[in-house]
Amino acid sequence: MNTSEKVKEWFDSADYELEKARVSLEYGKLLFIGLMCYHAIENALKAVIIYVTNGEEPPKAHNLSIMLEKSLLADKMNEEHLNLIKEVRPIDLDVNYSEYKDMLTQRDTKEYCHKIIEGTADFLDWIKEQLPVMPKNNKAKVTYIYHRTRS
């Protein structure tokens, strides 16, 4: 697989995670929306890392700070993007622990989840604009029969 194909595969995965978040919001399943948005951002950053390293595999870490550093995008991000990263980072950490479930349920209202989804969509569009190999397509809807789990 060449670099462009790898980049596309990771962006497809990011788009899929974002679509899962939108469907979850539509059906009122709010608890894991933040985690889906986190994974969408992580996968998009992994696509950028592959692009800037000319095809090297991204780290197998799930740490957005590491991904941002390796993607070379951190210095280009605006305040809105930085705030989104701060918002979704604790969502990923908290959602795996049952004692935080009540706190997440109270915080993750439909309005809050909608804000996180739209912020993630805007961030993914911005990331795609940074790469000449990715055309921007705000209205793209990705449909998958299955989704392969990524590291």
Secondary-structure element order, N to C = HHHHHH
Cα-atom radius of gyration = 15 Å
Q: Please estimate the helix content.
A: 55-70%
* Percent in strands: under 5%
Question: Which ranges are low-confidence, i.e. pLDDT below 50, for 5 or more consecutive residues?
Answer: 135-151
Task: Characterize the biggest β-sheet.
Answer: none
User: So what's the CATH class?
Assistant: Mainly Alpha
Number of helices: 6
Which secondary-structure class do the elements indicate? Answer: mainly alpha
Examine the secondary-structure arrangement and name the CATH architecture.
Answer: Up-down Bundle
Structure, described:
- The chain is mainly alpha-helical and 151 residues long.
- The chain has one domain (3-129): Four Helix Bundle (Hemerythrin (Met), subunit A).
- Helices cover 64% and strands 0% of the residues.
- The chain has six helices and no strands.
- Helix 4 (79-95) packs across helix 6.
- It is globular.
- The two termini are 17 Å apart.
